[in-house]
Amino acid sequence: MHRRLVEVEQLLSGWCNTDYGRHWLKVARIPGQALRLLPGQLIPVVHLVALGSRPIFIVPQQPVRVGHRFVGARDFASGRPLAEGEIAIGPLIRLDIVSDEALISAAKELRLEAHVPGVKAPSIIFTIPAHYLLSPERWPDKAYALYQHIFGMGNSYPDDGFFYVGITKRRWQTRWAEHLRAVEKGSNLHFHQKFREEREAGRITYIHHKVMAITDDLDKLYNTEKFLIEGHWDDERRLNMIPGGKAGLRYLREHSILNDGVIATPDERDGVLDAWLTGHQGKSLPPITIADRWQDEAWAAAQICSRSDRLSILQITAIRDLATSHCPQEIAKRTGARVDQIQSIIAGNTYSRVKGVP
């Protein structure tokens, strides 16, 4: 696609000169900025599509749907928590490369059926937060990337298919090639098994590579990975077999899947897990117990705040943020909590296990 870079830049420049595009660009240039969205509002993604050698074009933006698969930021500089049904999504740039003739024919004829038969080469989608391309900084020499691999067919395109969350120190293309080799070699990881099953059944028409963050702060990425996997733990499309981040490393050690004293890098975790599964054919992974789950701060916070008579995680984090500059009465107006609840949280007497979410 490098030879078509000028074409992409011209399209993106023109799009950013539209009314919405100018607003999108203003937000997109600032790392960490996001747009608050309710169902029906447009997802802030510039989605470019290349159908074979035909001119690249930008597809219309899609609205947020009720039930949109999303786990994201809860803390904001404004101190204002998300409203019911509201989500926050940062501006994205997406490129969809379609080379398969069955998919190209379906697109040309505007056939929008859930399944396109005869697909031999799924479309390849790449998505990245816009600021990495619009306001690039030199990436750290020892940077890690937090990513998702998503795959499925038309009715789940492009974000709602089966998904796997991971961290890599390699280029995402290199990491994906390693996953594919593991698929071909018969890896027992759920991610690789499901990919084989869906491919053999002809149910993969797209593969979506989604870079979510790039940084040399591995602890920050571990926390975010844990947060994302925990937030999707009950989603049947999740392909991760163990918790994310350091909670996953703790699980591996506690069940002797990873020996004490052995340090596994983010890229080595899958190999450790697959080696255990291969050596214990017919056995399932040790269950994640309630005691294990309570050691996970995000899960514990979700349980503590799950009852209807409790404050939400959003309210609690907002109260703590606002406490540095506002009185309890003002915080009560902004969060909907009672003054006595606010005073108790500030004093550290209640909700002490509910921490800020990355």
Biggest beta sheet attributes: 7 strands, mixed
How many H/I helical runs? 14
Order of helices and strands: HHEEEEEHEHEEHHEHHHHHHHH
Net shape: globular
The unreliable regions are none
Overall pLDDT confidence = 87
Amount of beta strand = 15-25%
Q: What is the number of domains?
A: 2
> Going across the major beta sheet, what is the strand order?
3-2-5-6-9-7-8
Kindly summarize this structure in a few lines.
This protein has 358 residues and is an alpha+beta fold. It has 14 helices and nine strands.
Architecture blueprint of SSEs:
Blueprint (H helix, E strand, L loop, with lengths): L4 H11 L3 H10 L6 E3 L7 E7 L5 E2 L28 E3 L2 E7 L2 H8 L14 E7 L1 H4 L9 E9 L9 E7 L3 H13 L5 H11 L5 E10 L2 H14 L13 H10 L14 H11 L10 H5 L2 H8 L8 H10 L5 H8 L3 H8 L12
Parallel strand pairs: 2-5, 6-9
Antiparallel strand pairs: 1-4, 2-3, 5-6, 7-8, 7-9
